[in-house]
Amino acid sequence: MAQCIRVSLGVILLAACGCLGGGAVAIIDSPVAHVGSIALQILPETGDMAVADALGWRAGIPSAQVVVHTPSGDRVGTSDAAGKVQLSLESGSFVIEVNRVLNDAEAQRVPTVEGALGFALVSSLLVDGSTPIPVPVPAARKKGLIISEWAFNSAVLPGVTGYGFGGYFELYNNGDTTVYLDGMLVGEAITAPFKLNFATCQDEDRLKYDPLFLWAEQIYRFPGSGREHPVIPGGVVVLATDGIDHRPIIANGLDLSHADFEFIGFNDVDNPAVPNMIQAGQPYLDSHGFEAGGAASTVTYLALPVDLTRAPRQRPLSNPPSDALAYVGIGRTSMLDVYSHLRRGGYTFPPCLPLLLPVFDRESASLTGDAAANTDFVVSHARRLFVERNGRKYLLWTHSSRTDFVRGTRTVGVVP
Description:
This protein is mainly beta. The protein is 5% helix and 35% strand. The chain has helices at residues 49-55, 104-109, 205-208, 401-404; strands spanning 5-6, 12-13, 35-44, 65-70, 73-78, 84-90, 92-101, 116-127, 133-137, 139-141, 145-151, 155-156, 162-163, 168-173, 179-180, 185-189, 213-221, 230-231, 236-240, 261-262, 278-279, 298-303, 313-314, 327-331, 335-341, 379-383, 385-389, 392-395, 405-409.
């Protein structure tokens, strides 16, 4: 079992496998009342020291743009040559943003294998009167093929249940070489975001907090025998639940008839012009195929080709005994990218947090709006543009959905 740790941002996280029961995360505010000048030390994350050493920044990241959002207004500053920034802050828990893009000369000093573009962070900051406060910031990397946009929020048809068939997500080649989709896997891993009447948070811990596998029942495979579906650098791939024109069906629907791939279900109209994804996991219970984001929470993944006949399987303890669905373990070393999102609030059951371990995603995003007002259908969760270089757009990838994604408008087939 993982130990409870104190994170150097000044936030105490009682996380990973039951420190608060159900793997909950808590921010514990200090009672210290303090208003004044606080020093923040902007540091490279320990796992990114190869990048920091190449730049000579092990002791601190210089010229980083720092914003701390407080109720009384944003506090903005730039770190000095030693990585330190001085801000006037009251005591409390706030959101901090850090961005540092490498210039061309700095980028040339970093080994190509690192693929680093800079450093970025969005996280929680606890100000309790102590100073300086260390702020570890992960490197932003090119990474390769990544999830770039997620838009699976349901709409409501008047007099009908939710309309969840107009969603899609996108992949983007953030690297510098062509990749081939053939045989790759996409889907949704177990989330179990809250405690149910027949299940405790701990019932799902062995699946949610396995450091070696993401456990999924929804698994889809790209068609192709090896090199049939290339994605060039900067290329975008759209995967739609239903690759049709949704505009005649639902207000604010999209024309997804030109999607690159679509999912198919047992009660679904197939668009022959859009290639079908191949069902490779448990047959999905919904009639239209893959729909991510049940209860507005998701762990959506992209993985390398895997021989699923040799993959481990487990049945979740929380399901009723008659439920025969089994989860398949997809190894961490096969994961190319994970987008996780947590809906905060609106539940009638206690939350079970976090959704997954940080080895798969450092921190989940939380971008849900007012679902009751049917507003989320018209928005997407999109990966931020980090830098444009040599005519290419590079999106932000720091292995943290909270840092990398923002809430915005749907932009099918187009990056920011």
